[in-house]
Amino acid sequence: MLGTGNCIATGNGTDALFLALRAIGVSREDEVITPAFSWISSSETISLCGARPVFTDVDPTTYCLDPHLIEQQVTPRTKAVIAVHLYGHSANLEEIQRICHKYHLFLIEDCAQAHLTTFNGRPVGTFGHVGCFSFYPTKNLGALGDAGCVVTDDDGLATTIRRLGNHGALQKDDHLMEGINSRMDTVQAAVLLAKLPFLKKWNASRQQNAARYCERLGRMRQITVPVVEPRNRHTFHLFVIQAQRRDQLKDYLASQGIETMIHYPSALPNLPAYARFGFRPSDFPVASRLQDDVLSLPVFPGLTTDELDHVCDKIEDFYTSG
Ligand SMILES: *Cc1c(COP(=O)(O)O)cnc(C)c1O
Question: How far, CA to CA in Å, does 29 sit from each of 76, 158, 278?
Fold first, then answer.
């Protein structure tokens, strides 16, 4: 579907990232630039390789890596950049690719939230040396349990990733190296093959829902709706608003039977998991503000117009009743 030369099935999306990092040779002493606002997979896999995640703040409108901040993070130890296409919106791949070329860095795309998102008309996952996907049940294409994959046009990298995910072997007992067991379960593969033909239709349904939300909520001053940068086709894995009095709004909607979620309640550098770096929230001002303001509204395919309008009505009620 993406047109890449190779697609390697993995046990989950986190393994896809870990295997990609291992395959490009990330190891001790290396640094990898990664966004400060994401799911923890895009930083923990760097640490798992023994390398250092170099957190970089995100752009306040796309919520993805801010390209203006990347260059100042590059050191002689920098080996790669992980671009996360957060919520289904592509990172600025043009600028990120330019920087990676200039400093001879590998580009890994984390497409776990961006199945068939495009940038300049081309699907994400095909820009970097490696693209990593998750098929966790909640993703735009989800299995019944865990699954993931890695895509790449580089046949050498593909072979290494295949080996690393299968105990270092391509065939039984052919262990050229040590690896891990990250095979995609056959049952999950069958489910994904059956669901794959529906992905475009489901993405279109998310896009329609998002458009109606923007129409209804876009004029409210208490809310910021997502901005789709013109080169993007956003696939709205999540529909994330920034909301004044976010926590009270979330509680109010819950009391009305409307489930919302927070992706994510803490920027990565502010997590206890990264206390060793001694960061302060002011080191990542955008990410540290987003953690307090973002709220994900229901956007799943099959959400009815009535349900969506009901969510919008309740949000209006919350703000008009003070
Ligand atoms: C879901 C997700 C992952 C990890 O995928 P798993 O299949 O849950 O391991 C990685 N990165 C991002 C941005 C994700 O949303």
Answer: 10, 24, 19
